[in-house]
Amino acid sequence: MNVKKYTAPTMEAALARVKSDLGRDAVILHTRCFKRGAILGLGGSQVVEVTASDEVRVSPRTSAPRAAVAVEKAYRGAAPSNSSADFLALKGDITALRTMVQDVLRNTRGSRTSLWPQSLQVWHKHLTSRGAGESCAADVLEPLVANLAGTRRDDPRLVAKDVLLRVAECIRTAAPIAPGVPGSPSIVALVGPTGVGKTTTIAKLAAHFSLREHKPVGLVTLDTYRIAAVEQLRTYARIIDVPLQVALTPGELCEALERLSECSLILIDTAGRSQRDSMKINDLKAFLDIRRPHQTHLVLAANAEKEALEDVVERFSVYRPDRILVTKIDELPACGKLLDIAALAPHPVSYITTGQDVPDDIETAQPDLIAALIAGEETLER
């Protein structure tokens, strides 16, 4: 077998050499990163080594024109006009390419932190052990590499201080809800998928502003799909003695807001929508378009998978949310995942919820508090 090794300062340069020497059909067999010219692990320059061959075939290939047609057809969501064998061969090639890219990225990420000071490598491992993604944790910590010079990198207390400050810098937060005045209330809507805790969070906010800040609060629910949700919010409204309006249509929403105009704050509870249900998402959009809230908080459950969170953020962007509210922090084994949520969300975090108790288990989002939760320097049982 014709197997060759290529070295270069970067992965891109090494892959370019492979392509130039072995052609476009070369298969990457192995990649690694190491330091050349280092003495006892110090100094030297980073080198990327790629092992490749032009004699390995992942699966039978179609000719270039037919493969191009198949790719174009597949991207359009239609079955290719070529034979099923051609399509399966193309699918096998794509799978092999995906595996190769994942291997390259995995090796690149590993080498990225291997040159860091040991104290930062320890912190990277700590954050990932608490649920933060490897890439996200590396992005956050990398700017500290140049700052940790001399003896500072060997002082655990100074390193921890720098790390916490850096994590806090990466947490964008929004100011708490500011009620208006009777006759000119602030209108705040909560939107998000089913099961993230919107109704309970609405009750917590209503209780806080009504019972603790003594502001006249009104509630509107658009969640007419679930009778239990309306009754749950009605029970909360009765307990904290605030008015509740139910709106079935966009027109009724306008009427409900008018009836509650003497409140200082109006909170709108919306029906949960699957991010996959485009029709129901558009139904709710019609409500919010006819009377834009002053604030729209997208509610994300901290215990959801990262891919699902990314999907929710993308699909619920039609509501034009300007804040993120994170629920179910208490259901995480550790809070490192908040780092990824803060990174993927395009809007600042307004509140986090830490349990089911109304009105206690809700906190205004503060960078230092969230950083401490991420790092494990703070717990929820305070």
What does this protein look like?
By secondary structure, the chain is of the alpha/beta class. Among the domains are: 117-170; 186-375, Rossmann fold. Helix content is 44%, strand content 17%. The protein has 13 helices and eleven strands. It has helices at 11-22, 64-75, 84-114, 118-129, 134-141, 156-169, 198-212, 227-240, 250-259, 278-290, 306-315, 337-344, 367-375, and strands at residues 3-8, 27-36, 45-53, 186-191, 217-221, 244-246, 265-269, 295-301, 323-327, 349-353, 362-364.
CATH architecture annotation of the domain at 186-375: 3-Layer(aba) Sandwich
Give the uncertain stretches in residue-range form: 60-81
Secondary-structure content class: alpha/beta
Helix count equals 13
**What is the CATH topology assignment of the domain at 186-375?**
Rossmann fold
Strands ordered across the widest β-sheet:
6-5-7-4-8-9-10-11
- Describe the global form: elongated
Q: What would the average pLDDT be, to the nearest integer? A: 81
CATH C-level of the domain at 186-375: Alpha Beta
H and E order: EHEEHHHHHEHEHEHEHEHEHEEH
The strand count comes to 11
Q: Output the radius of gyration.
A: 27 Å
Helix content: 40-55%
N- and C-termini, Cα separation:
64 Å
- Within CATH, the superfamily of the domain at 186-375 carries the name P-loop containing nucleotide triphosphate hydrolases
Largest sheet: 8 strands, mixed
Beta fraction: 15-25%
Main attributes of the structure:
single chain; 382 residues; alpha/beta; Rossmann fold; eight-stranded mixed sheet; 13 helices; 11 strands; 44% helix
